[in-house]
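Sample 3 of the quickstart, ligand pyridoxal-5'-phosphate:
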Amino acid sequence: MQLAVNKTDQLKKKPDDSELTFGTLFTDHMFNMDYSPQKGWHDPRIEPYAPLEMDPATMVLHYGQTVFEGLKAYRTNSGSIQLFRPKDNFKRLNRSCKALCIPQFDEAFAFDALKTLLDIEKDWIPSAPETSLYIRPTIIATDPFLGVRASYTYRFFIILSPVGAYYSEGFNPVKIWITTDHVRAVRGGLGEAKTAANYAASLYAGEEAHKNGFTQVLWLDGIEQKYIEEVGSMNIFFVIDDELVSPKLNGSILPGITRDSVIQLAKSWNIKVSERKISIDELVNAHSAGSLQEIFGSGTAAVISPVGELKYGDMVLTIGDGSVGLIANRFYQTITDIQYGKAKDPMGWVEHL
Ligand SMILES: Cc1ncc(COP(=O)(O)O)c(C=O)c1O
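Result:
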């Protein structure tokens, strides 16, 4: 397949790094590629960023047959551009495709197309500390058809958005609301896929948490509502008695790339790590016994998000002294230093443009 490139001659005004927020501005070009049963994936092209024109009956709009990814391109102090484990994002996108009955795509081709797109858009990659270019690969079902089945045709697109520092007011712990009224995903469902349905399922409880003054929801399992799964749209870690614990991937948890990076780093630092079921009762007991030292979320957007307070029913648990834990801080510094090329990359995670 040959990647076609059609550049715009009407470039947008680029924002000042200090004005950047998250996900509101998009670059001049995007990648598009189509799928049909006759041609397979075909017609890959980079073209001016533009709205998608869709029939109102397009299947993605009705049945949510779609998958996406989120990763970032970083500018180093020397001005070069690098990516953090991007091939793992394309691998996960294909795994999500499988769960949603979307045809597999060629990961190496998609990664090369992304590099070409980034090369065209590299002036959009900000350079202020902690800013980056967010990359959103997405695949949608495009048959115009009002019946429930997998679509025959699809569109794969990649859009880019310059984003500001996640912690514009500093790296501070957040307050988390534990819900027993709502679940994000269930065993046998779509929880381990990065697909719209999981985010739709998270909105009601997220709104409730915000109304009550909390930043995110802590999700319990969808069957017994007893075991901890994720926090907001992040994976979750606990430090209990000097051991790093994260819920074992069970089919309803998204296998985060940051989660895997935290686990690999912890092992290389000889921190004891355990991926296992962890119940909310165990957590409450560890808190009462004084052995719960830290809680933090992990994900591409925030990298590491320390938890300072948990609300569970009438109980309010303050974690540690409510400030950022030493271990959370060490992961945050180490991973961001690798991402921005400030530290060595001992695991071979970085890809240079
Ligand atoms: C539901 C959910 N869990 C976990 C993560 C963290 O995954 P990653 O570390 O690959 O960004 C994300 C974000 O991508 C997510 O949306």
